[in-house]
Design a protein that fits this description.
Organism: Roseibium hamelinense
Radius of gyration: 17 Å
Strand content: 15-25%
CATH topology of the largest domain: Arc Repressor Mutant, subunit A
Strand order of the largest sheet: 3-5-4
Shape: elongated
CATH superfamily of the largest domain: Winged helix-like DNA-binding domain superfamily/Winged helix DNA-binding domain
Protein name: HxlR family transcriptional regulator
Number of strands: 5
Distance between the termini: 5 Å
Number of helices: 10
Helix content: 55-70%
CATH architecture of the largest domain: Orthogonal Bundle
Length: about 180
């Protein structure tokens, strides 16, 4: 798995949750998945279609109704479902869940297992300055990322490193790479 695939996967809010639910044994029909995820139908449907486009989910042939199909994980989806389950397990709770639904949270945590500078993170992910800056602030507020400033450098250079639950998420991702 590469970081580009992780970025694509997390670009939809409910993708990780859907994969984790399927990994944990929730039936692949839309109603049980929506109920377990506590998601709105439109956002959930967009994430579901996104996972199908990425080749991680498929309609289960011969099961379900044409208007209410049943979905199952593909071989590729099974790998990512295990990862999604470990990520959500590393940071349980509603507050953590809302942070994990943000587009750049998981990719940023994936690359900050070791101290990284802003430009190194930006280059590695292909993220805009504004999106990365907002994500770093959210992760600092959540205490999942630590910002250290090296004042010996001119100008002083900040470095970012995952800590606490952010480090657990980073390690779960690293184990999958």
């Amino acid at each position: 798995m590469d970081i580009a695939t992780l970025v694509k996967l997390t670009s939809k809010a409910w993708s990780l949750k859907i994969l984790a639910l399927l990994h944990s044994g929730v039936p692949g029909r839309q109603a049980p998945l929506i109920a377990a995820a506590k998601a709105s139908r439109s956002a959930f449907a967009a994430s579901l279609l996104h996972l199908i486009d990425l080749g991680m989910l498929e309609k289960n042939p011969g099961h379900g109704h044409p208007l209410r199909p049943e979905f199952r994980l593909t071989d590729k989806g099974k790998v990512f479902a295990g990862l999604a389950y470990r990520i959500l397990e590393a940071a349980p709770g509603d507050a953590a869940s809302s942070v994990l639904k943000r587009s750049w949270t998981v990719p940023v945590l994936a690359v900050t297992g070791a101290p990284r500078r802003f430009t190194a993170i930006k280059t590695g992910l292909g993220v805009t300055d504004r999106a990365l800056s907002k994500t770093l602030c959210v992760l600092e507020d959540q205490a999942w990322l630590r910002r250290d400033i090296d004042v010996a450098q001119r100008p002083p250079l900040p470095t970012y490193q995952a800590v606490n639950a952010g480090l657990k998420i980073s390690e779960a991702i690293r184990l999958s790479f």
